[in-house]
Model the fold of this input.
Amino acid sequence: MSTATMQLAAASGLLSIVLFVVAVTVVAILAGGFWLGYRIKLNESPRPRPDEQPHLPPEGPVHEVQENREPDEVPQISKDGRPLTPYELTNMQTRSSSSKDRPRWGRGSSGSFGGGGLGAH
Done:
């Protein structure tokens, strides 16, 4: 081995100092993150007390309702009238349907829009 390769292989004092400074910097950043998180937590509102928690309504738990909904019809325009623009239309509401039958896919259809599967047999 030559002297040049020995000097390259030997640990440099400057490299050790740089690694120590980097390690101290990383530890300081982590400690600052914990300190900042603690300060933010101190400024938050306190947790709600048990008497402030939500309670069941007096009539008991609310259950889901299954019903069929049908949309309102889009307003028709006359032949000599101008078409409605999107901002002239209201939010299209739905209403309860008089039919209680659940909509089902037709026999032999794929059940999805363009899925292309075999569907119900």
Notes: The helical segments are 3-9, 13-43. The first strand starts at residue 69 and ends at 71. The chain has a mean pLDDT of 80.
